[in-house]
Specification:
Blueprint lengths: L1 H9 L3 H17 L3 H29 L1 H21 L2 H29 L4 H29 L3 H7 L1 H12 L32 H30 L4 H13 L2 H10 L7 H20 L3 H28 L4 H33 L3 H21 L8
Helix pairs in contact: 1-6, 1-8, 2-3, 2-6, 3-4, 3-5, 3-14, 4-5, 4-7, 4-8, 5-6, 5-13, 5-14, 6-7, 6-11, 6-13, 9-10, 9-13, 9-14, 9-15, 10-13, 11-13, 12-13, 12-15
């Protein structure tokens, strides 16, 4: 089970981040516009938002083992169609890929809650760290594979099929479990069949967790999309901007490791929320007011640590605020649905702000306001309460 969780996590970001490095090759071959090229990255986020609420319902009927296997098969199919068909298949395959990843996104926190009840923090640390590492690897190896090994962008993106097949093989033993062993029936804390539980969408605690997830996702994907451009606008070169953007992704790893371990050292997580948000806003303000390479790199380090911490904390909230694995799956679906919908809008909206004002200053002020809102949502999401039954 541990290996299954780890290897499935490897597949949840790399096939998406791998596209950004070779999108120019794809656009050149298919003669795509800038908007169409951007939609390749946005489409999986839209799939996350649309599919996530229904994953827990599917798991109720067929079991978590088969549901996750369906997700892996969709990722595999998406990678094949995306790489080896035409321009329409590029988008269809990306959509399949997004649906499969959405299943993994939703079920992993629920499976951790069910299968590792005494080490939730440690497992979430492993989970979020694997996400960050393979997101960076995905972005980093695409061009060397495509150009360095002369594989072309198609084979470069399709190389992730190998990892998906290995993950599916590791997961096969979980298919023997019947639906009775799914997360929604795996705990004595679950409500009795005779008593209908309150809808997760009516819980105020669930909404605070959802808003925290959504806001940190919006910040992350907006900065991933525009951070290099913002740095270049300050007079830095392309290579420096690329290195700074890579720093933003890689240095999040220490925070993704430590926050899940630290969360249970305190009565609640409000202190962690404000520490993360303070670090985040200092990083953004530093980037706003400085133009020297050292200060820009320092700002990227601060933003990176805060980004990693906020991602980990958003996943932790899904488990901590849920009384049982059924609720964890429901809250995971709800928070990731709204969260990735906001994330999909973020890069487009920030780009629109720049088009209107012709400066990144307004966008960065908006980032600061969003961080303050993140702290506000975290005050309630970090309170030590459970979602109502």
């Amino acid at each position: 089970m541990f290996l299954g969780v780890v290897f499935i996590t490897f597949n949840l970001r790399a096939p998406i981040t791998a596209v950004g490095s070779v999108v120019d090759m794809i656009s050149s071959e298919y003669r795509l516009t800038s908007a169409e090229s951007g939609f390749i990255t946005t489409l999986p986020l839209i799939a996350f938002a649309l599919v996530s609420p229904f994953v827990s319902k599917l798991s109720k009927h067929v079991g978590y083992g088969k549901t996750m296997a369906i997700g892996l098969l969709l990722i595999l199919l998406g990678e094949l169609v995306r790489s080896y068909t035409n321009n329409i298949g590029l988008f269809v395959g990306t959509a399949f890929l997004g649906i499969g990843i959405a299943i993994g996104n939703v079920l992993i926190p629920s499976i951790i809650k069910m299968k590792f009840p005494n080490s939730v923090g440690g497992m979430i640390s492993v989970y979020t760290t694997c996400l960050c590492i393979f997101a960076a690897i995905g972005a980093g190896v695409s061009v060397p594979l495509a150009k360095g090994l002369d594989l072309g962008w198609r084979n470069s993106l399709a190389s992730w099929i190998i990892l998906c097949l290995v993950s599916l093989a590791i997961w096969l033993p979980q298919l023997k479990f019947k639906p009775s062993s799914r997360p929604v029936a795996a705990t004595r804390l679950e409500s009795s069949p005779e008593k209908k539980s309150m809808s997760i969408w009516k819980s105020s605690t669930a909404w605070w967790v959802t808003l925290f997830m959504g806001t940190q996702s919006l910040l992350f994907y907006s900065l991933v999309a525009w951070l290099p451009t913002i740095i270049i606008s300050k007079g830095m070169g392309d290579s420096f901007a690329g290195s700074a953007a890579l720093t933003y992704q890689l240095l999040a790893i220490p925070a993704t490791l430590m926050i899940p371990i630290l969360h249970n050292k305190f009565k609640n997580q409000r202190g962690l929320v404000f520490s993360i948000c303070l670090t985040y806003i200092l990083g953004v303000l530093g980037l706003l007011i400085t133009s020297t390479p050292i200060c820009i790199l320092l700002s990227c380090v601060l933003m990176s640590l805060a980004m990693g911490g906020s991602i980990s904390l958003s996943i932790i909230f899904i488990s901590l605020r849920s009384p049982n694995a059924m609720r964890t799956a429901e809250l995971s679906g709800m928070s990731q649905s709204a969260g990735y919908l906001l994330a999909a809008l973020g890069p487009v909206l920030m780009g629109g702000v720049f088009d209107i004002f012709h400066t990144w200053t307004i966008a960065m002020i908006i980032f600061c306001v969003l961080i303050l809102f993140l702290a506000f949502c975290g005050w309630f999401a970090g309170n030590n309460v459970l979602i109502e039954e």
